[in-house]
Amino acid sequence: MKLKALFIAATLVLGGILLSGLDAVHPFGVPGDVAMDEYFLDHAVEERSSENVVTSIVFDYRAFDTLGESAVLFTAICSVVMLFRKGRK
Amino acid sequence: MRKPLSLVARTVCDLFAWFLIIFGVYVIIHGDVTPGGGFQGGAIVGSFMALLLVAHGGDRVLEWVKTSVYWIMLFVGLMMFIGFGLRGIPEGTFFYNFLAVPHDVAKTMAHGLIPFSGTIGVMDIAVGIEVAGGLTVIILSMFRGIVLHDFADSRKETGHDG
């Protein structure tokens, strides 16, 4: 029972710390630093001539992220195939 | 799980599965002008195999399909993506868009095969091939796993070697 009270106290303290952190959270709907956004919106079409700015970010400006996503997908496929592999009889 | 659906459902699934492929390829190759792209179009193409498996109950499809084709699609897509990224190194950086043309030149061109938006279209196609093959591999191997568990004693945990 003493341990349970300790857990409840720890939960309350941790929750209080996390909730008090909400003060420092960025306000919703208000952009912070818009330099990158404005650069992409202004220059993506002229530089890369792709009419879809999202695609030009995903496959050109931040293609390294997409490479990581592909690696994650490949790892997931290998894991699934290993998990569902027919075992040795 | 292994029993096929009725004749009507099978016929409709057979008919519409090919339109699903056409729509997925459309989403992939128009990734640089319309919403969507390689991942989304690849997922649409991958759902082709799920539709066939559900409609036919798996037995016919599993003996008809070759999983190695989809592994090859996965590897070819990933290698195309990495290869076009490496090809940009002599021009500048990794993933440099060496095929891009300026926008005023591109506006006068018809929406041709590749050099409209440079490597973005190529990357779209590569990721589309990779995701289509990979999701089909996942669907097929998961279905094989389910079929395997139908025969085994499912109340007892045996492991793969047991």
Automatic annotation (TrEMBL), chain A:
<keyword id="KW-0812">Transmembrane</keyword>
<protein>
    <recommendedName>
        <fullName>MrpA C-terminal/MbhE domain-containing protein</fullName>
    </recommendedName>
</protein>
<feature type="domain" description="MrpA C-terminal/MbhE">
    <location>
        <begin position="34"/>
        <end position="88"/>
    </location>
</feature>
<feature type="transmembrane region" description="Helical">
    <location>
        <begin position="66"/>
        <end position="84"/>
    </location>
</feature>
<dbReference type="Pfam" id="PF20501">
    <property type="entry name" value="MbhE"/>
</dbReference>
<dbReference type="InterPro" id="IPR046806">
    <property type="entry name" value="MrpA_C/MbhE"/>
</dbReference>
<keyword id="KW-1133">Transmembrane helix</keyword>
<keyword id="KW-0472">Membrane</keyword>
From TrEMBL, chain B:
<protein>
    <submittedName>
        <fullName>Sodium:proton antiporter</fullName>
    </submittedName>
</protein>
<feature type="transmembrane region" description="Helical">
    <location>
        <begin position="125"/>
        <end position="147"/>
    </location>
</feature>
<feature type="transmembrane region" description="Helical">
    <location>
        <begin position="12"/>
        <end position="31"/>
    </location>
</feature>
<keyword id="KW-0472">Membrane</keyword>
<keyword id="KW-1133">Transmembrane helix</keyword>
<keyword id="KW-0812">Transmembrane</keyword>
<dbReference type="Pfam" id="PF04039">
    <property type="entry name" value="MnhB"/>
</dbReference>
<feature type="transmembrane region" description="Helical">
    <location>
        <begin position="69"/>
        <end position="89"/>
    </location>
</feature>
<comment type="similarity">
    <text>Belongs to the CPA3 antiporters (TC 2.A.63) subunit B family.</text>
</comment>
<dbReference type="InterPro" id="IPR050622">
    <property type="entry name" value="CPA3_antiporter_subunitB"/>
</dbReference>
<feature type="domain" description="Na+/H+ antiporter MnhB subunit-related protein">
    <location>
        <begin position="9"/>
        <end position="136"/>
    </location>
</feature>
<keyword id="KW-1003">Cell membrane</keyword>
<dbReference type="InterPro" id="IPR007182">
    <property type="entry name" value="MnhB"/>
</dbReference>
<feature type="transmembrane region" description="Helical">
    <location>
        <begin position="37"/>
        <end position="57"/>
    </location>
</feature>
